[in-house]
Design goal:
The chain is an alpha+beta fold. The chain is globular and about 60 Å long. It is built from four helices and ten strands; from the N terminus they run βαβαβββαββββαβ. The longest helix has 15 residues. Strands 7-8-9-6-10 form a five-stranded antiparallel β-sheet, covered by helices on one side. It has a three-stranded antiparallel β-sheet with strand order 3-4-5, with no helix packed on it.
């Protein structure tokens, strides 16, 4: 990347750590190595609410309790059917994630719902009291987990948000594609995510909190997109 991009580009600002360095720097026992690069995390809720407030101040017409029930492509744009009447627009943004193909069937098979699972974990006694100062992705042979720490000004500062474990599901997670039920959790993934923090941090994890390790766990809908899809194609 450094041979292709200008040295000031963020994509060139990465560092490779060997096994010993990765264990010491990131507290991960048995790490083969690590790569760090410019990254970050954001509260999706606060981000969306912030944008919404700005848009409302600039004249956005927000229609609540008005579900879109059908989309139609017209010569000069789009028609959106709702229980309160139709809306026509030259441009349309679909913020419907894994449910997009339901609203616009032409994307069936292009955008597919995918159930993901997440845990909020109380950090062990061996981890820094103020929380970890970087986001993590744990990459292994046939999958990965992702992890961030709650910021210091949050309700539970330092809590570890650990998600992933898809390949622990039946058929290596294949059956989770197309699943839209986010009211239940997958027990085998729950067990895996619960043990993953101790597995990755080893003795650096320390002792579990007296109130148990898991504060909360849930599932949510993601979307998988066919990598060869060209949105410009007719």
């Amino acid at each position: 990347m450094r041979r292709v991009f200008d040295k000031d580009e963020l994509v060139t600002q990465y560092k490779v750590w060997n096994s010993r360095e990765a264990e010491e720097r990131f507290l991960c026992k048995g790490a083969i190595g690590a790569i760090t690069y410019v990254a970050g995390s954001v509260s999706a809720y606060k981000f969306v609410i912030g944008i919404l407030k700005i848009a409302l101040c600039q004249g956005l017409n927000l229609q609540t309790n008005t579900p879109a029930t059908l989309l139609s492509k017209e010569k000069e744009g789009w028609s959106v059917e709702t229980p309160r009447g139709n809306i026509r627009a030259t441009k349309l943004v679909l913020a419907t994630n894994g449910y997009t193909a339901y609203m616009y069937p032409k994307l069936q098979g292009v955008i597919v719902p995918l159930r993901g699972q997440m845990t909020a974990q109380i950090p062990g006694s061996g981890l820094p009291s103020g929380g970890l100062n970087t986001t993590y992705s744990f990459i292994h042979d046939n999958g990965y987990e992702y992890m961030v720490s709650r910021p210091r000004d949050s309700e539970h500062p330092g809590d570890i948000m650990m998600g992933g474990g898809l390949v622990k599901c039946e058929e290596d997670g294949l059956l989770e594609y197309g699943t839209t039920d986010d009211t239940t959790i997958v027990p085998v993934v729950s067990a895996y995510l619960r043990n993953s923090t101790k597995m990755y941090f080893g003795e650096n994890w320390g002792e579990d909190n007296e109130n148990d390790r898991i504060r909360l766990e849930w599932t949510g809908m993601l979307q998988a997109t066919h990598k060869s899809y060209d949105p410009r194609a007719k």
